[in-house]
Amino acid sequence: MDVSNKSAVSEFVLLGLSNSWELQMFFFMVFSLFYVVTMVGNSLIVITVVVDSHLHSPMYFLLANLSVIDMSLASFATPKMITDYLTGHKTISFDGCITQIFFLHLFTGTEIILLMAMSFDRYIAICKPLRYASIISPQVCVALVVASWVVGVMHSMSQVIFALTLPFCGPNKVDSFFCDLPVVFQLACIDTNVLGLFMISTSGIIALSCFILLFNSYVIVLITIKQHSSRGSSKALSTCTAHFIVVFMFFGPCIFIYMWPLSNFLIDKILSVFYTIFTPVLNPIIYTLRNQDVKIAIKKLKNRFLNSNKATPQHYF
Ligand SMILES: *[C@@H]1O[C@H](CO)[C@@H](O)[C@H](O)[C@H]1NC(C)=O
């Protein structure tokens, strides 16, 4: 294609997080562990929500959707990084790099809108409880999920189209463990590109605006809970603090990296670990440890599984 003709660079080298062998071994073990916990924990949430009819409500459907996105976010770059530690292979093709940018923005964009949908759901449930059933109908819930994917696709398309217009002619060392626009942009053979800086910081500004919106809605929700402290309010409080921890851990790094795209700090690398490796593992931990309904549902699921294991042999022998 003429895109690759224009670009002299056909592959990038991912420098990863560290050169030291000991640190690499450490990262290999920690990230592998996190990856396994992310996949197992989030699958467990999806299975529990789908199987248990007590959890068939918009809040848990949205949570299960978030788990699906978290698994995708954990999988677009981390497995490659983990296996690269073993093989010592560090390159990624030009197309692979663009694909990583696409998926990174697809999953983070979708996750941001989904987190907003979840806060909207909690806001209505707690501040307008009488109108909840009429506002958050199953159709609205599906519409929120579809909308978050549509926004995610549109956002990531815009980022990728921009990345494809950049000429790459020389340096190809990406100082990170996956391709992201702020880092790759610094390798392009152009003088300071106002449009580029604008494109990148727009992501940061959008993330910041969403975060302020989310922050306000959770503050209103928390104040409402405090005012009507009654039965069930501690449950609402723990749900909302859980949501808020996820929101904070996810948005903080995104906003920092994208608002100051040309800063090239070690801190950028550390922060990118946050939203690709730490946040995806957070959901299952927070929800399985703090949410009574999910805990009970998982226990029931376990009993059902154990009983069916015991029952099957009796049927056949
Ligand atoms: C995602 O949300 C939709 C809409 O409520 C729901 O129908 C679907 O089952 C959810 N997906 C998962 C994996 O739970």
Automatic annotation (TrEMBL):
Coiled-coil region list: none
Record bears the keyword Disulfide bond: yes
Compartment(s): Cell membrane
Membrane topology: Multi-pass membrane protein
Cross-referenced InterPro entries: GPCR_Rhodpsn, GPCR_Rhodpsn_7TM, Olfact_rcpt, Olfactory_Receptors
Principal location class: membrane
Alphabetized SUPFAM superfamilies for the sequence: Family A G protein-coupled receptor-like
UniProt keyword terms in alphabetical order: Cell membrane, Disulfide bond, G-protein coupled receptor, Membrane, Olfaction, Receptor, Sensory transduction, Transducer, Transmembrane, Transmembrane helix
Protein name: Olfactory receptor
A GO CC annotation given for this chain: plasma membrane
Keyword Transferase in record: no
Gene (name only): LOC102817998
PROSITE patterns in the record: G_PROTEIN_RECEP_F1_1, G_PROTEIN_RECEP_F1_2
Matching Pfam families: 7tm_4
